[in-house]
Amino acid sequence: MLDKLYFYSCKRAVTNMRGLRIINSDTYDYDGYNSDFGPLTLSQIQQYCTDVKRGLAQGIVLHVCSTHYKKQVNAVFLLAGYMLVCEGYSIH
Asked: How far apart are CA 37 and CA 44, in angstroms?
């Protein structure tokens, strides 16, 4: 995934650039109960994997999330899920 898939955590919105597909973590927001913040559902992981595959077919993908720790945890969870399920990476 070198030079194809990037992760960026920032406070400001990122604008689209030519040849770059931006995926925002807020699209896959967890609707928690009580005070938990995840993990995300299987359907959200599946949708994320589909979106990343579609984005990679078009060019470079930039996964953007806020600097809030709960958003970052779920964003990294999505990215790790993609790498395990779709790219065949090992947990080791």
From this structure: 14
